[in-house]
Amino acid sequence: MASSGFRFVHTADWQIGRQYQRFEPEDAAALFEARFAVVQRIADYAAQHDCDAVLVAGDVFDAQTVSERTVRRLFNAMQGFGGPWVLIPGNHDAALAESVWTRAQQLEVVPSNVHLALAAQPVLLQDLGVAILPAPLTQRRTHHDLTAWFDHAQTPDGYMRVGLAHGSVSGILSGDVDSANPLAPDRAARGRLDYLALGDWHGMRSIDARTWYSGTPETDRFRNNESGHLLDVSISGPDATPQVRAVRVGQYVWDAPQFQLSMPTDAEPVIDYLQTLGPEHVVSLVLSGHLDLATQRRLLDAVAAAQARVRALDVEMDALALQPTDDDIAALQADGYVADVLHTLRGMLASASAQDAAAMAQSNTAEAVVARDALALLAEILQEPQ
Fold it and tell me: What's the pLDDT tens digit per position in 153-179?
């Protein structure tokens, strides 16, 4: 039995096989591939830093229905680390009677150094003097704490006790976590655990000195929750306080900024932001307010340039209204019937603007609103490439 401590990687929520329908096919394919690549980086890290094991706290796969090829590719990606891996099912890949795990076993693709902890019983890493206490999900949702058995679990004398679970720590995490599977916030103390490795919350978070969420190693959502890491954990011996270090391994940086525009200078921060983006960025940009024609052209040029550099850039402009200035309107060029419409709209806007304040308030300036909206729409049409 080892006596030099236990150093391991804590990771979770790989979501292998996840689809990204909101993105263009090329971007979705790259994000799909990134989840295999980060597993390879985790394996390489564990090997290069002499880690004793890798613990994966659930949601290894995104769904039970991932393809056979995806299952095979996952275990291939783990080959860089030859030490023990311990994996538990989460809510996305629960250990059902027929599951992605039974398929993997039937395919005979699970390496001998990979422990699939599909039942609530200790996994003894005898050479390391460590007992892993898993709490695998056997259905997608539970309403009782699957880690309760840790409190009474018998493990060999002198072994370190490390829990491995997937769910939501009661009373601490927000209500928008993936699963309803509750976990006691003091389980590490009650279960006499040296460390409790958790999954389900896709961000990195410490619950207490012995209880951590690692978060997903490859960011997959627009949330500022410190995702994209693995946790490098060292425990010198039973009852010792674990030393936990976050290591960034994710490839992509997800960001969801929002900008309100009301004058031409408000576009400058947006353009400056777009110019900082590179190939590692996945961005959902929301713009609201209003802008004139010249500012719109500058902004659209900056968006087009950024979209050619980044992995994915989604721009939401439904709440951004085009409000042509008088100079914008005067500069619009049109012939024939369109020119007549443009002349009529200009006249409506001028007539409404000439009303005194009382008359405008009384009429609610309906004619001015219609005229300006129509002019904005016409301006957009006239400036489109023919």
Answer: 999 999 999 999 999 998 776 555 545
